[in-house]
TrEMBL record:
Gene3D superfamilies: 3.30.70.270, HIV Type 1 Reverse Transcriptase, subunit A, domain 1 (3.10.10.10). The lineage of its organism: Eukaryota, Fungi, Fungi incertae sedis, Mucoromycota, Mucoromycotina. InterPro entries: DNA/RNA_pol_sf, Rev_trsase/Diguanyl_cyclase, RNA-dir_DNA_polymerase. This is Reverse transcriptase domain-containing protein. PANTHER family: REVERSE TRANSCRIPTASE DOMAIN-CONTAINING PROTEIN, TRANSPOSON TY3-I GAG-POL POLYPROTEIN. SUPFAM superfamilies: DNA/RNA polymerases (SSF56672).
């Protein structure tokens, strides 16, 4: 769309990539280029340039660096190699997720011994009558005055009813939920969602049962400004560390208590019973 008033006719030939390939020069033109926040004035050669892709301009290596474009990873030979390639610091065939312990068994023994003592103590916790005891860990569900959150239970596929019933039994046995009073103004439907298997794939082979509290969230008075950390922030904190440990906490989210006066606000309803946290 730029004017070609700066076009200067000339004669001669332009040598292309192959030694036997050249075209007649028509002239040169000065154009202003705006790309990637760069503004560059450049003199372009003008010649007949045929291409099936209908390319109007071909940028040479002399101008790419001026507008912030770099070329990397080009192969130097074909068929025999695909290089150059920067060596990967991690051999993906050697490392097995969740099964790549540090050092030898002798080196790990003192740590395992210390951890086993803590795990033994942890296993004695009465899950049914115990909640997280950290300060301010009890969940408060302050709702806007005059607002309630009732959403009917979604139809559950017959194939998932057994999984839902098993999860409800576990929640009842562990004291996560209890039978609710009838005629409550709140109801949050249950959902079955995909769960990651041992291969790292999300499937519905063993569905995860969750409570859809989006309607309840919409009427909450939120005064908590604490946000969960970003994955990128976590990577920055642990990126220079050598040893990483992982603890898989059983039912972490349901380990937090809810203020008794608010517990009825998290009420799923299954055909046979009304439940609450």
């Amino acid at each position: 769309g730029q004017s070609c008033a700066s076009f200067k006719p000339s004669h001669g030939v332009v040598q292309l990539g192959h030694v036997s390939s050249s075209v007649s020069r028509l002239g040169a033109v000065n154009l202003n280029i705006f790309y990637n926040k760069f503004a560059v004035k450049h003199e372009f050669e003008v010649f007949d340039f045929y291409s099936n892709e209908n390319i109007h301009v071909l940028l040479g290596l002399d101008i790419l660096s001026k507008i912030g474009i770099g070329i990397t990873g080009l192969v130097s030979q074909h068929f025999t190699q695909v290089g150059p390639k920067i060596p990967d610091p991690i051999d993906p065939d050697h490392v097995k997720p969740n099964d790549d312990p540090y050092g030898s068994e002798i080196e790990r023994a003192p740590f395992v011994k210390s951890l086993n003592k803590l795990l033994a103590t942890n296993s004695k916790i009465d899950l049914k009558n115990t909640r997280c005891n950290l300060p301010d860990s009890t969940i408060k569900l302050t709702t806007k005055p005059g607002c309630v959150a009732w959403r009917a239970q979604y139809p559950l596929p017959e194939a998932y009813r057994e999984a839902v019933a098993a999860q409800i039994k576990t929640w009842l046995d562990e004291g996560v939920i209890c039978r609710s009073r009838s005629h409550t103004e709140y109801n949050s439907p249950l959902l079955c969602v995909k769960k990651k298997n041992s291969e790292g794939e999300y499937t519905l082979e063993k569905p995860r049962v969750v409570c859809d509290v989006r309607k309840l969230n919409s009427i909450l008075v939120v005064d908590d400004k604490q946000q969960l950390p970003l994955i990128s922030s976590i990577h920055e904190r642990i990126g220079d560390k050598t040893i990483h440990s992982l603890l898989d906490i059983h039912a972490c989210f349901t380990s937090y208590g809810i203020l008794p006066s608010d517990s009825h606000k998290v009420s799923p309803h299954m055909g046979f019973a009304m439940l609450e946290r």
